[in-house]
Structures are given as C-alpha cells and as structure tokens.
Amino acid sequence: MKMEEMRLIPYHVESTVEQTSEVPKGIELIQAPEIWDESKKGKGVVVAVIDTGVQTDHPDLADRIIGGYNFTSDYDNDPNNFYDNNGHGTHVSGTIAASENDQGVVGVAPEASILALKVLTSEGSGQYDWIIKGIQYATNWKGAGGERVGVISMSLGGPEDVPEMHQAIIEAVNSGIPVVVAAGNEGDNREDTFEYSYPGSYNEVIEVGAVDLDLKLASFSDTNTEVDVVAPGVQILSTYPQNKYAVLSGTSMATPHVSGAIALLKNLTSTYFDRELTEAELYAQLIRRTLPLGYRGSSEGNGIVSLDLLSQIQKVIKPATEQKS
C-alpha cells in the first residue's frame, strides 16, 4: 500500500510544571473515583495506547507499563525502544492510568496496565502502515500471564479513509476490543457544519469529542454524524516527559478519559453479569452512563461520560419504589 503519513491530532500545550499532587478535574468530572471500588480501579485491564510511545520511567507510569513496541523509524528502528520522544503519548497514558501514589496525578483507571505502541515519531507523524501494524499487534497481543488487550486508545487522525486501516479496526472490534478514537480538532465552533477525520469517523470506533471543564463544547472539537460521546479535553493536567506534568488541550486529551472509563466498566460489568461483555455490550454500558448537555447529537453524541450516573438515578427513584412496597 502507499506509505501515506498520519499525524497527531493538533493539540495545545498550555503549561508544564515540575510537581503536583491531585486528582485532575477531568477525572472527577466523569465521576471515575465514585466507581473505583466496584471497578477495582481497572486492575487487570490492558489499554493499548497507539501513539508516540511513553516515558517508561515516569514515577506515575513506571508501575503501569506492561509492555510496548516501536513500529517507527525512531531509535534506529529498534522495536524494543518505545520511549516517548514527543510528549503526547505520555500525557495520554497518564490520563488513562497514572498510579495512585500520593504524588503527581491520578488516572481514570489507576490500576490498569498500559501497552505502549509507538506508531508516531518525535515529530508526531507516522506512516499508515505503522498505524495498521500497531492495531493488529494490539488485537493479537498476549502478555506473559495470558493477558489480552481490553481497550485500544488512539488520539491520532488524518483526512484519508484508508481501507486497510478500517479493516484492522473492524478486526479489533470483532475480537471484542473497543477502539476509542479522538474526533479531531478541526472544528469551526459551528454545530451545523461537519468535519471528518479518520479513523475517528469510522462507525465501528467510539469517537470522542471534547468539552471544557465547565461542560461547554470545545470550540475546536470536530462535529460530525459519528460522534459517540464527549469528555473533558480543555486544560487537562497529566504526565509529561522528564518526570514533569503538563496542561494540554485537544480531543486527544478527551479520548483517554473514555478509554480509562471503559477499563473501569470492564471490571464493573464482568462482576455484575458474571461474565465478560462483548464489545457491543460494553459500548451499551458506556452509553447508559452518559448525560446529554444540550448540544446536537452530531456535536456531543450521547453526551458526557458520567460513570456514577446510574447510582445517582437510583438514589432518586428508590424512595418512590419503597413507598409503593
């Protein structure tokens, strides 16, 4: 196939800091801490982060990395060196699974594991062939303890619909793996015009748009007919190379919130149903836990992810049912 290039969805670095100690507001907004106990904080779930790699020795991530692979030309094509030389992959990984260690930040699923698949170079670009191989690797990967990938997270995109990439995603989904993808940052702040980026616009993926920390739709967030949900993507604090932390904005930052949320839901639902759910069932469980914000479906999909929403509804309706009994 023709070796086209895909790029990171553009993002903005707001600031960097040497130290911090907090649960980022985005994690709180999607109500992740409220379901940590019943979801075991994502323990045992492997999230494949297909990105620029990861800082494997970052104090908030070192315990979370289960493996990785470098598909790029960086590091003289060394497949075993998937160290992040850009920053994006480290930031995304922290939002998904930064450890709860009384320092730095905490991820959505702080006991989940990260499989870091480096498909983009230090410049944030990569050949479609690398992306496709990364998706296939995640689909077929098996850990030393028999682990399999539970979620694929991709905060990347491009304007081209590449059939081979689409097929790789279909195979991942058919194997039971939800594929979470950023919607893109080409939005023009109008709900009546659509912007399409791939792989986000494929129907099989879970396409994520961005809202700010006041739950307003981000002006840059792509709107189109395939948006599934929105999550915090403006001024998101997470891990960054050189043991630092950074505040970044973009649908790239919204996507890992949803990837981490699915890691939590995998554990929560398998306990409740006494079985592993299919990809379609996991998607349905995610959508059950969304709250519409008043925008068009092509802007917010089903709404913002609100992981504790069902418990909150139950508290409201329980008195009424008790009165009837």
At the fold tier of CATH, the topology name is Rossmann fold
Which whole number gives the mean pLDDT? Answer: 93
Structural domain count: 1
Strand order of the largest sheet: 5-7-4-9-11-12-13
Distance between the termini: 66 Å
By CATH, the superfamily comes out as: Peptidase S8/S53 domain
Radius of gyration: 18 Å
Number of helical stretches of at least 4 residues:
10
CATH class reads Alpha Beta
What CATH architecture label applies?
Answer: 3-Layer(aba) Sandwich
How much of the sequence is in beta strands?
15-25%
Shape, per Cα inertia axes: globular
Which class best fits the helix and strand makeup? alpha/beta
Describe the sheet with the most strands.
7 strands, parallel
Helix content: 25-40%
Unreliable spans:
none
Note the run of SSEs as H and E: EEEHHEEHHEEEHEEHEEEEEHHEHEH
What's the β-strand tally?
Answer: 17
Pfam families: Peptidase_S8 (PF00082)
Keywords: Hydrolase, Metal-binding, Protease, Serine protease
Organism: Pullulanibacillus camelliae
InterPro entries: Peptidase_S8/S53_dom, Peptidase_S8/S53_dom_sf, Peptidase_S8_Asp-AS, Peptidase_S8_His-AS, Peptidase_S8_Ser-AS, Peptidase_S8_subtilisin-like, Peptidase_S8_subtilisin-rel, Subtilisin_Carlsberg-like
